[in-house]
Amino acid sequence: MSFIKSFIEQETARRRDFLLASAYGLVGVAASTGVVSAFAQNKPTVAWSYRDRNNPYWHAIVSGAESFVESVGYKKSELVHLLNNGSSEKSLADIKALLSKTGGKAAIACDANDAPNCRPVVEAVQKAGGHVATIWNKPDDLHPWDFGDHWVSHMTWSDEGPAEQTARILFQAMGGKGAIVGVGGIAANNPAIERHRGMMKALKDFPGIQLLDYQPADWATQKANQVMQGFLTRFGTKITGVFCANDSMAYGVLEALKAEGRKLPVVAYDGNPEATDLVIKGELLATCFTNPHWGGGITAALAYHAAVGTFKPSAEPKEHREFYGPTVLVTQKDAAEFKKKYISSTPKYDWKDFWGPGRGQIKYVAKP
After folding, report:
1. Both 178 and 247 in a single domain?
2. Given 27, 45, 160, 261, which is the most exposed site by the fewest CB atoms within 10 A?
């Protein structure tokens, strides 16, 4: 059985178990251990609110956070995991529950799941007197400096440019002609919007390539598999290339193509270990690495150090409150070297160098 098929089956089982646990009120119970331990040590509780540890991207995020908490004297098990499984409502409810349990003495790293959920999250943290550092999703008109020291920072990745690069690699591999389909993330997610925008920007320079359809698959392997099956039913052999907005969805796309006996050029995004191997083998043309281990660790570090008073966020310049994380394009030419540097061994990071690998202050695209 291929790892892709196993990945889809694991995703299905995980979703089933999550729904059962939710029904019996079990989700989030394990988080209390880290809260109690932090109280005993008179330290802030450190938590990460995220989607799903079975996803390689989020696993890398949280591995970085575990590395950070160990560097400041916590046990790895003391990091509190607030798993929202893609639910913004659960994300907010879990954060509010943690703030209530800790009396606001919490350092929270968070992806709000979608942009609209960011405001209630940071408002809840500010009201409780906690500290939160966020990644990926927030409205363009919402900024950490409007919340004093409680919203420590926001990091995102400049996805439009790298997504445009991966799309150009796809279109060039197609010889500048043919027809593609696209598989995107959650519609309200900032990275989903930027990656779609990057693909569309590249498409303007390739008049010989037609976009047949672009559908969201919510970053999920199984849903991407279903979306791709639908594309194959509707368009058949007209499809000559596939743009995927993340690696996990690309796995579902590749499995759907394999079931139909088709081999097409496919590009993805995230630089997960499995995707890197697929690039080396030539089954994916390219992916784009956002260094989630560093991102997960430094986001937790920012929240923690603000909570303990190592630095005062409101005294920092705006480029330290909102900034881009690093990206690395991975193609077959450099995938083996990339794997050796970032996957086979994890680089050692200085968790007090908050902004070193960053790529400068976030810039906003003017709305038409």
Report:
1. yes
2. 261
Residues 180, 133, single domain; the answer is no
Which residue, 161, 156, 191, is CA-closest to 322? Answer: 156
3-state secondary structure of 107: strand
In a domain, 345, yes or no: no
Task: Give whole-number Cα distances, 163 to 174, 243, 292, 297, 329, in Å.
Answer: 17, 9, 17, 24, 9
* pTM (predicted TM-score): 0.87
pLDDT digit string (tens) for 66-96? 999 999 999 999 999 999 999 999 999 999 9
Q: What's the distance, CA 186 to chain centroid?
A: 11
307 located within any domain: yes
Asked if residue 341 is part of any domain, the answer here is no
Burial class (CB in 10 A: 0-12, 13-18, 19+), 216: buried
CATH number assigned to the domain comprising residue 138: 3.40.50.2300
